[in-house]
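Researcher: Following up on the earlier apo prediction. This time include the ligand. It's S-adenosylmethionine, with the SMILES given after the sequence.
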Amino acid sequence: MTIKQCVKQYAPLLKEVTHIPAKEVEILIMYLLDVNVIYLHLNQDKTFTKNKELEKLINKRAKHYPLEYLTNKVSFYGETFLIEENILIPRPETELLVEKAYELLKSIKNPKIIEVGTGSGIISIMLAKLIPSLQSIAVDINDDALNLALKNAKKHKIEHQIEFIKSDLLENISEDIAKSCDMCISNPPYIADDYVLPKNVKFEPKNALFAGNKGDELIKTLLEEISTKKIKYFYCEFGYDQKKSIINFSKKFDIKSLEFYKDYSNFDRGFLMEFNI
Ligand SMILES: C[S@@+](CC[C@H](N)C(=O)[O-])C[C@H]1O[C@@H](n2cnc3c(N)ncnc32)[C@H](O)[C@@H]1O
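Model: Understood. Below is the ligand-bound prediction.
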């Protein structure tokens, strides 16, 4: 069977899981052959010999298993990152968080940040690439995430700008170190425990997604820690229905300002809090 015939044969099996079935079959073929899109399009009539391997991947994908876990690759902010099971797949909305934090950090000389819940490392790594003088302490509770984030940092050649530390929120970050940072940034778990996930998201780690009864519990604990450890700025992604709750909770702190931003679908998606310190 040629590559073209393969795409035609397998694409219908993915109709229920994606709106780009043929493209996904092509991505899986490129992954198996370790070739790029130019090769694929110039060799449409070449015989494809890895049918068995492809069929295995297609069958998994047809059960909603994420494409990114099959290829171990994900795009974020125009760059390619490694990804694997047990680590959250980066979402496009988080590019907004990076963009907004970059706007603020680029005006600070030699900025230093702490990222909580680094996952695959995308936020710290992108900020380090955008600002070569930036230093980051990136923490997570998941060892697999920390290992992968370090691999991604090395892949992007900015590992000297990021220190990866295992920590439950800011527990393992001393007050002195925290105080020396300009900003805490986080895309934390923020989904309510009773929320029913779409089929594909069910393959992702629960402790990267769920954060308690209402979903904003972890953000609130982190806010307490940031206030105690005296970090000036907190940039955070959150759930579209958590704005009111964050406004009410912020009243207990001495803050200078609180601004919210929306995502591409016009939902509230995050905030920047500036503490009076
Ligand atoms: C929503 S994911 C974000 C991952 C990555 N920053 C991104 O945007 O794709 C949340 C991350 O927080 C980590 N996490 C969950 N609870 C944590 C805690 N108490 N302390 C530190 N990290 C935590 C999870 O392991 C996960 O990697």
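Model: The mean pLDDT is 97.
Researcher: Noted. I'll compare it with the apo version next.
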